[in-house]
Design a protein that fits this description.
Length: 168
């Protein structure tokens, strides 16, 4: 006869799967967040993790659902509902993490500027140290604040009668 696996070991597996699932979602978001410099090694790691996160979190979600089911069937009557709610919440969070791993949060956060509004340099409310992307097309000039461009990344504009795509 084989010895049964203890409930603590099963619960530890549930927590480990939850931790792996959360890390697969959180690490790329942490590394690739805006207004932060990224090292080549951590960026490469986050891109690899991001590529595999949907599959890995799905495996973690399936494992959590399986382990939660096993724990539910093995639980003793003493405080059973509290334990079941705890394991169900962990499994639910891992399933949510698995679903979120399929969404590119940065595509949701950063929208191109479609209706840009411009003011004269004299009336612009900018600091002297603020960096801008300056563009000259014929006699016309325009400056795009880097702080705004870094958030939106893309701006479509017309300057001097020429279509212009400004990116940062």
């Amino acid at each position: 006869m084989t010895p049964k696996v203890s409930n603590r070991l099963i619960f530890s597996g549930l927590l480990l799967a939850a931790l792996v699932s959360f890390a697969m979602l959180a690490f790329p978001m942490y590394v690739i967040r805006p207004f932060r410099s990224q090292g080549t090694t951590e960026l490469a790691a986050s891109l690899i993790i991001g590529r595999w996160s949907a599959a890995a979190t799905s495996i973690c979600a399936g494992l959590c659902l399986l382990l939660t089911t096993v724990l539910w069937l093995r639980m003793q009557p003493r405080r059973v509902w509290m334990k079941r709610i705890g394991t169900a919440l962990i499994a639910l969070l891992v399933v949510a993490t698995s679903l979120l791993a399929r969404v590119n949060i940065f595509e949701r956060m950063f929208h191109p500027i479609t209706t840009a509004q411009f003011v004269s340099a004299a009336s612009a409310n900018t600091d002297n140290k603020e960096m801008v992307l300056a563009v000259n097309v014929g006699p016309e000039q325009r400056a795009y604040p880097v702080a705004i461009m870094a958030y939106h990344h893309v701006l479509n504009d017309v300057l001097g009668g020429e279509p212009l795509v400004v990116t940062y």
